[in-house]
Write a structure and sequence with these properties.
single chain; 284 residues; mainly alpha; 12 helices; 0% strand; globular
Amino acid sequence: MIVAGALIAVATGVAYNLGAALQKREAVEVAIGTKHLLRALAKRKVWLAATVLSTFAWVGQVAALALAPVALVVPLLATGSAVLVVLGVRFLHERFRTSELVGVALVAAGAAAAGAAEAGSTASHEALRFSVQFLIVIVAAVSAALTLRWRTGVAYGAASGFGFAGVAIFSKEIGDGFANRGFAAVPHLLASPAPYLLLAVSLGSLSLLQAGFQRGNAASVMAALSVPESIGPLIAGFALYHEKYPHGIDAVILPAGLACAIAGSALLARHGRKLGEPAEIAAA
């Protein structure tokens, strides 16, 4: 079950980033502010197709979180960010600074190491209290607002990452419901705030992500997103779902991997582009 969850997580990460590449391509074509950005993008067929792909990837994320521990699944989702470097150069005609490439590599390697450290654990299907679910939204919103003070593409990516951390947790709530009760979980889930909070947080995070794509390279934005998106559910896995912390060498690899990912994100943030400064485009 755990191996299946890990494989689904890797495939899901690749699918998310393929969708992100298409969304990035469309976002830079729309000269409009964040407030009305989603409305404008929703009229573009390619962006809608990319969003459908991301929705299928989300289904994979729900399945992975039901089969494997949060601390294994979420870091593995981030490993797909390396795909965006290739797509950025080949498909989006982006030019990366050396610091950006190093930052993306650190995030991907750190996330993979953190995931490997959790590979032997078991998944918890414990449901969160409603008050805790609302608290998660508040923490994500405050963290995103503080991050947006920098107003760079990387900052928008990181801000959306706080929201997507909440999405991952609410996705686990839904996946666990089906894992515990099957389709009988539907009325229980509809009576809980999880699906509604999931929808609201997803829309807000998606809007911030598209704004990030307008301001920075896709791989850099997604790498910045992946750090809070990984750390938030990791904390939830240990503190809220009571998943066991790894022992032995894995107890060292997990924080080391996270530190590597954070260092990569910090490097990206240091060299992030300011609001209004376009992503570098390679000559045709």
